Amino acid sequence: MAKQEDVFKKVISHAKEYGYVFQSSEIYDGLSAVYDYAQNGVELKKNIREYWWQAMVQLNDNIVGIDAAIFMHPTTWKASGHVDAFNDPLIDNKDSKKRYRADVLIEDHVAKIEAKIDKEVAKAAKRFGDSFDKKQFLETNQRVLDYQTKADGILKRMGKSLENEDLADVKALIEELGIACPLSGSKNWTDVKQFNLMFGTKLGASADSAMDLYLRPETAQGIFVNFLNVQKTGRMKIPFGIAQTGKAFRNEIVARQFIFRMREFEQMEMQYFIKPGTQQEWYEKWKEKRMKWHLSLGMGEDNYRFHDHEKLAHYADAAADIEFKFPFGFKELEGIHSRTDFDLSQHEEYSGKKLQYFDPEENKSYVPYVLETSIGLDRMFLAVFSNSLKEEELENGTTRTVLKIPAVLAPTKAAVLPLLKRDGLPEVANKLIDELKWDFNVIYDEKDAVGRRYRRQDAAGTPFCVTVDHQTLEDDTVTIRHRDTMEQQRVKLSQVKEIISKEVDMRYWLQKI
Question: What are the tens digits of pLDDT across the range 275-289?
């Protein structure tokens, strides 16, 4: 665990040092669990959003996008169940006075058990070498099976207790497992209580006439209340989807782990409207499609896994998470949920308006079922960033820090470097910048020796460095250096755009799905 914490500290430090993420209002000592995306961070975030949007909307004929308002009529949240049921189970430690989510304490305990499984796998892989069969080992090794049974049992009991709102048993489970306060080591716990996560606000010019509102805790409801508007104006036929990206707000009492859990965050969601009775088929299809999207980025198949929910939300008949191996263990990255007809039926009831689809094939109207895919953009950012940060030992005995962000997502695609600040080299470099910037985000860098500039761009995540030198003046060739391999090749100036395009074009990456 200590090693994981060290890795995560490096991730947080690197994110600040290279202009990806800053603490919000840092000059005033910051605001807890609120962060600003810096000059490189905002580009990476934009590119992830665009990669999702192209895969979800542009490449699917029957999925369209909307951008619903953050403020919604307050009855929306009554109908959706958020007013009555959007709670987290919280527990306080009497000695440290710190508050924790009870389910997260238990999940962290399970993560330690799973870490023991990983340790057993690593030892076996080292012992058996190339002949090691990981799948067979996980299915047959008794110690691993015991660990897995223990972990599954804990999660199953917690899920059942939360589903039955048996908070006393959740506390009992924490005590039986001997879970201590991470800060003080104390096991002196209060009872578990529910806490509503929505931020309240007011709308209106005066205190007397102001309406009580909430900042939206999710983006999905903006899609549901616009279902009929989109269906009719877009002449959409079931099955069809509505996608949206945007900010959501949750009053997380236990906000932690950098940008993994924040009070202000961004979601990328798609609600897929389907015929009742077909939900299981579409559930499996979207699980497969979404995993393919993740794997297309080449961040390692072993870093992903599905986790089926033991405890289902009140609106779901099936749910699974795509979990990613963050520096602090496997955690939820995306959710795929079969939401049944709960949302549209609830909004029908509370609004008094029909939200039904007339099916010409069946010659009848019905309330569609919904299949949801929901991914946290900030969590995806952290997954990409943390997985990309590497410390590499080189053949000459030195080390380099490199941020191997998938080239399609990299904030800056290329840095153009004049070897010297004289002899007409900066002029040629700036001319190349002017040509490339219409297609890519590129930068000019002339400070320090070229080797140090290479290292700086490696650490910033730039996939290519293009060096202009005296030979360029003679034959119009430059040296192009690849970040991941450090390979250098001499190419014509006229070839630079094509070489970069092949590596960063979304078409090349999205064809994998």
Answer: 999 999 999 999 999
Helix, strand or coil, per DSSP, at residue 261:
coil
Report the C-alpha gap between 269 and 424 in whole angstroms.
Answer: 50
Query: How is 291-304 classified by DSSP, letter by letter?
Result: HHHHHTT-S-GGGE
Q: Within the chain, which residue ranges are assigned CATH 3.40.50.800?
A: 412-510
Contact call for residues 72 and 225 (beta carbons, < 8 A): yes
Bridge pairing between strands 63-65 and 99-101: unpaired
* Cα–Cα distance, 13 to 216 (Å, whole number): 31
- Phi, then psi, of 370 in degrees rounded to 5: -130, 135
Question: Tokens in use for 319?
Answer: 């749910």
- Helical (H) or strand (E) element with 212: strand 211-214
- Which phi and psi angles does 263 have, rounded to 5°? -85, -30
- Residue 247: name the closest of 222, 212, 213 by CA: 222
**Main-chain dihedrals φ then ψ at residue 129, nearest 5 degrees:** 65, -135
The answer as to CATH 3.90.780.10 being correct for domain 1-72+212-391 is no
pLDDT, tens digit, 9 for 90 and up, residues 434-493: 999 999 999 999 998 998 999 999 999 999 999 999 999 999 999 999 999 999 999 999
Q: Which CATH class is domain 412-510?
A: alpha beta
Give the pair of three-digit tokens for residue 229: 């508007």
Given a contact cutoff of 8 angstroms between Cβ atoms, the answer to whether 294 and 322 are in contact is: yes
Domain 87-196, classified CATH 3.30.40.230, yes or no = yes
In contact, 11 and 383? CB cutoff 8 Å: no
pTM above 0.90, yes or no: no
**Cβ neighbours of 255 (radius 10 Å):** 19
Angle (CA) 263-267-272 rounded to 5° is: 145
Cα within 13 Å of Cα(503), Cβ side:
20
Domain limits, CATH 3.30.930.10, in the chain: 1-72+212-391
Which segments of the chain belong to CATH 3.30.40.230? 87-196
Give, in order, the Cα–Cα distances in Å from 91 to each of 88, 157, 161, 282, 414: 10, 18, 15, 38, 49
